[in-house]
Amino acid sequence: xxxxxxxxxxxxxxxxxxxxxxxxxxxxxxxxxxxxxxxxxxxxxxxxxxxxxxxxxxxxxxxxxxxxxxxxxxxxxxxxxxxxxxxxxxxxxxxxxxxxxxxxxxxxxxxxxxxxxxxxxxxxxxxxxxxxxxxxxxxxxxxxxxxxxxxxxxxxxxxxxxxxxxxxxxxxxxxxxxxxxxxxxxxxxxxxx
Length: 193
Fold this sequence. Notes:
By secondary structure, the protein is α/β, with parallel strands linked by helices.
């Protein structure tokens, strides 16, 4: 089993975040294209066309799809038999990858993280620290999943504690129309129970 090199993890994190900033997933592009073909409303078709044009321009120019490039959330499965060729902790390596991605001179990404959210509210300038979730698993590999999400889209997040007799569907149907504007289209609901 070969050791995992510090530079490999850092570079992988940085490269992934840059890639995610300017490419939509293929299934998303296909779904919007299919919806565009079926849509009867001229305004809705125009909005979907703009999303597809923007997506193509960002991919070709390697520029962020959205000015809000998210809060970096990392899920790391670390094999219990992994050996490291590293001087930094895994947390420090991940944050260094985030730092490099968000400050890359060719495509600087907007940083949204504050050093002291409840105090001075000073932006870190490099989007660190990431939110990191660890799991120790059998094996000799490290598996990393990254999501750059949040920021503006989470301004519309809602949390509720329902009584056992309350209807989740009724709560959703009552809440969504009250969200209003302010999120980036297309609006997609993620409901966690």
